[in-house]
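R.M. (postdoc): so does anyone remember the format we settled on? I'll just put the structure tokens first.
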């Protein structure tokens, strides 16, 4: 009896560990419109010239964007809000409001009212912790699945994937789980170096391949600075490269204009 009980206990424990470490299921809908950027997308108080066409097209017709700055150090948020509000006004979005201006209930209410969301960069662990703690993660998921345009850059792009496993950040705080928004059909690695920077490129390539050896079921989309990928109508396109796809059948480089068929959600 004791041995049977011990066997059942160990089996249950191992099954629970497997469940804890499993990649969360992708949340998708034919209405989902998700943009991920590799970072460094700003030029002063405007978006960089190269990213303006993709950002303008993606956010076309929207009037009020919720700006999420949880990844920024609190002392920097007012300045970052001013920069992003001006950048969005420059591409035709009339109003931007940062969640850091509001209390918990106010932030949730704003996320439910706006017609666009943008998650800025900084520290991925601080960002994900705040999204989880406040309940904003679930609200963003529901709104994105209903079709609200949702974009993120750097850390903000990283949390749009299933887990934050390929962020480049140190863990500045503890988080209950690495599970993120699961709205984009691949893990994101932002700020991926270009091949011309041989040592940095080789180092990043090794790190991602090593991560995949431990997590072979996960696909990684690595984005260079100012590179942009978009999920729309169940298909992922790359309006602005370069990017690299690390998947079960190896890795390959991607260029501007490519369609990434491996990430189709239909």
């Amino acid at each position: 009896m004791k041995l049977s009980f011990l066997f059942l206990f160990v089996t249950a424990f191992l099954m629970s560990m497997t469940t804890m470490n499993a990649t969360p299921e992708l949340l998708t809908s034919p209405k989902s419109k998700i943009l991920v950027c590799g970072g460094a997308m700003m030029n002063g108080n405007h978006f960089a010239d190269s990213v303006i066409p993709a950002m303008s097209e993606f956010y076309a017709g929207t009037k009020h964007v919720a700006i999420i700055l949880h990844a920024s150090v609190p002392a920097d948020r007012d300045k970052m809000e001013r920069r992003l509000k001006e950048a969005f006004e420059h591409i035709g979005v009339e109003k931007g409001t940062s969640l850091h201006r509001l209390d918990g209930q106010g932030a949730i209410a704003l996320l439910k009212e706006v017609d666009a969301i943008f998650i800025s960069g900084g520290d991925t662990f601080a960002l994900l912790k705040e999204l989880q703690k406040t309940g904003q993660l679930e609200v963003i998921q529901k709104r994105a699945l209903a079709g609200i345009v949702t974009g993120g850059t750097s850390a903000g792009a990283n949390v749009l994937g299933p887990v934050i496993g390929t962020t480049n950040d140190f863990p500045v705080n503890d988080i209950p789980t690495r599970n993120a928004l699961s709205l984009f059909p691949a893990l994101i690695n932002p700020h991926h170096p270009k091949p011309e920077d041989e040592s940095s490129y080789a180092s990043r390539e090794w790190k991602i391949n090593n991560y995949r050896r431990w997590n072979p079921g996960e696909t990684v989309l690595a984005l260079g600075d100012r590179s942009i990928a978009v999920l729309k109508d169940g298909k992922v396109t790359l309006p602005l490269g370069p990017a690299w796809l690390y998947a079960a059948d190896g890795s390959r480089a991607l260029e501007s204009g490519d369609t990434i068929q491996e990430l189709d959600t239909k």
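R.M.: ...and that's the designed sequence above, right after the tokens. Also worth knowing: Residues 32-263 form a domain with the Rossmann fold fold (CATH 3.40.50.880). The longest strand covers residues 235-240.
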